[in-house]
Specification:
Length: 257
């Protein structure tokens, strides 16, 4: 019996649909090949409606594989939301690739999900992408600069994933989520610190109150963008391939709701 444990079906499908999207110029062939046969097989399972798992990490990887008009459709929305003038030549990379290949090396293993860069790998927009996942955070989550309790909302703004990804360098930060607003200040995030936490955990009251202050100051420095806005842009710019791409940019479990 042959099969792919990640897709949960017997006999992993051929990559016909993935190859079609590559041939159409909406998936970047070198990067798609570099993802390996296991990832491509799982993507094919999504396209043929026989995948059992397709997670947020798979989707952020897929965003970085977009090419041509599809990638530019997404980048335009991200630029609009961040308040950055769009220009041809900007493109998306995964945060892990940015950390590895940016001219300035960085050892921290944490990554923001995606980065819009120019041809010289100068960062323009840093994006944290969420569907249902909560905001990551804990005590000593970050460096001494954010000692105590911190989370992605606070420390990601200040170069914790890479020194070039810092608001001091005029990089814009976007929170990509299911919320429908585009370009507005971020006001709420699942799993973020709330005033109730200091009451719920009185032994950590001081640390949580300080964390809430930092988070409150950080929130307006993030702008919002929605998955729906990305999907709509794909429908407008690459209508013949949009639904396949949207399928690859949606968790499998959401399709069953």
């Amino acid at each position: 019996m042959s099969g792919d444990a990640a897709t949960g079906h017997v006999g992993a499908p051929n990559e016909t649909e993935v190859r079609r999207l590559v041939a159409a110029g909406v998936l970047h062939e070198p990067w798609t090949e570099a993802m390996g046969s296991r990832y491509r097989s799982r993507a094919e399972a999504v396209l043929t409606a026989c995948a059992s798992r397709w997670l947020e990490a798979d989707i952020t990887a897929m965003l970085s594989l977009l090419d041509g008009d599809a990638q530019q459709a997404v980048v335009q929305v991200l630029c609009e939301a961040a308040g950055v003038p769009y220009r041809p030549g900007l493109f998306l990379v995964e945060g892990s690739d940015f950390r590895r290949y940016h001219p300035v090396a960085h050892a921290d293993r944490r990554n923001i999900d995606l980065v819009v860069i120019d041809k010289d790998w100068a960062p323009i927009i840093a994006i944290e992408a969420k569907f249902n996942a909560a905001c990551n955070g804990r005590t000593n989550y970050c460096s001494d600069a954010h000692a105590g309790w911190s989370n992605q909302l606070v420390c990601y703004l200040h170069g914790c994933t890479h020194p070039a990804l810092d608001i001091k360098n005029k990089v814009k930060f976007l929170w990509l989520s299911l919320d429908g607003e585009v370009g507005t200040e971020l006001t709420h995030v699942r799993g973020a610190v709330t005033p109730r936490d200091a009451v719920r955990y009185p032994w950590n009251k001081k640390i949580l109150e300080e964390a809430l202050e930092r988070q409150t100051a950080a929130m307006p420095q993030w702008r919002t963008v929605s998955w729906a806005a990305l999907y709509d842009s794909l429908r407008s710019h690459v209508p013949e391939h949009a639904e396949a791409l949207i399928g690859l940019l949606t968790p499998v479990q959401m399709k069953r709701v």
